[in-house]
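REQUEST FORM: STRUCTURE PREDICTION
Request ID: SP-0412
Submitted by: Lab K.M.
Chain count: 1
Length (residues): 547
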Amino acid sequence: MKKIVPLLIILIVSYFFSKPFFNSGYFPTHDGEWAIVRLVEMQREIKNGQIPPRMSDYLNHGYGYPLFSYTYPFPYYLGMFFRLFKIGYTDTIKILFILSVFLSGIFMYLFAKKLSGIEAGVFSSILYITAPYRLVNLYIRGSLGESLSMVIFPLLLYISLFYIEKPNIKYSLLLSLTLAILILTHNVMALLFFPIFISFIIFFSNINLRKVNLFLLRNLLLSIILGLGLSAFFFIPAILEKQYILLSQVKLANLQDNFIHFKDFVALSWNWGSKPFFQLGWVHILALISSICVIVFVKKARSKGDLPVFLYLLMILSILILFTNNISAIFWKIPPLSWIDFPWRILAIISFFISLFSIFLVYDKFTRILGYFIVLLSLIVNINYVKPISYLSKPDEYYLTNDDTTTSMGELMPLWVKTPPQNRWTDKVQVESGSAKINNLIYNSKSITFNVLSDTDSIIRVNTIFFPGWHYTANGNNIDLNYSNPLGVVKLTLSKGDYIIKGVFQNTRVREWSNNISLVSIFIFLGLLGKFYLDNKFRFQHDEKNN
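STATUS: Completed
RESULT:
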């Protein structure tokens, strides 16, 4: 019963802090409705046979958009699981946001509990659930990727603790899989969290083993390589093929405008504008100050040997906070940080670490009372931020017909598109010059087929923006493509005659190699998983015989 009560408390708190998602309808956020449109598009592309999905045909007013070539896909893969049960698109996205709260609370509890006991787990979990920036992601920004990445931070470090204790195949595979999921859930969060993950394992292996274990680090390197391999199909093309899109040349925002002033951390206003609410949470700051006081003034805290852990966490938190301020501007001009436009994204990781400091509030009766007081205060204060600006009542059909790009500035638009589409085309394929007839048109996001009966030399315009991977044939012969026009759409020059035109969206060499790396990694993962299962089965049978 004692084991169940803390989890029940966490589940109840999670419910109240995600309660608006249980109501009917939805509510406006910066990106929340786009998540629904993206889920719709993910299903379209999978139905079209795009595995993995990369190129949309429906979005961008029907002219096509390489959405999942660059946008983190895992939240929508997860969404497709719920779609198997005929759950609506809007409800599926709401479920994913709800899970982001419940699961992050549970994993934070397990992680902090392993570090410092049950009460530490409850304190850290509730502070993590009630962190103001999480509520910003839920009710202002509507960032599905960041919300779900907050589930993975404690999970990855929780598995890391087991791995440090026993660096076997089981925990190596779990590390690989969790790292891959983080990369696929939010690539920016993965980039920011990765060095922390490495430092955490090195630090805690040194604390637990009194030295850096080379065997452990070797296995860790192999786990990281496997994790990168599992996610290679996404992140390698996203990096190497970034050169084709607007994002390679245009920043989404001015870096200087998106640093956080230290005074913003304690601001009390709830801002629904274009720049999010940056408060760390004055209750969370109180928890941090209290933990510092406990370490300084409570002898038992230092005698338990927690001082090195405290100093490590304080160092990480301090570095993270400095990197949100323009003091660190020079570092944000160096790759890979230069790829990130919004330094305030670090607030997701800061929220994780500042919540974790409550593990130092469990040493005696006084510190426990202080911990319970801070947690209760956080519940009372931050429940006020669980408030959508309004509610929407839009059916799923609305999102099925939404053909926006789902990106803020059309930043994934190919560079050769000089005039982005503003309206949907009248005909998918049209005769731009000459005399010709088009019939038997069949198309989706992966292919297009149609017949052309051309009475004269003709130019046929296919209202699909060209993107590397599109190949066309006329009567089985490769045909040169012309896309040097303002819209960047494909134009085919045909002489007089009868043609069967086929266009197929194929893998580039980069995508093909990346897919193969992931495929090989999956086989290695499954092979090692099978080996672990057989080894355990053999060991169990051997123990049974001996008994």
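NOTES: Residues 4-11+26-389 form one domain.
Reviewed by: T.R.
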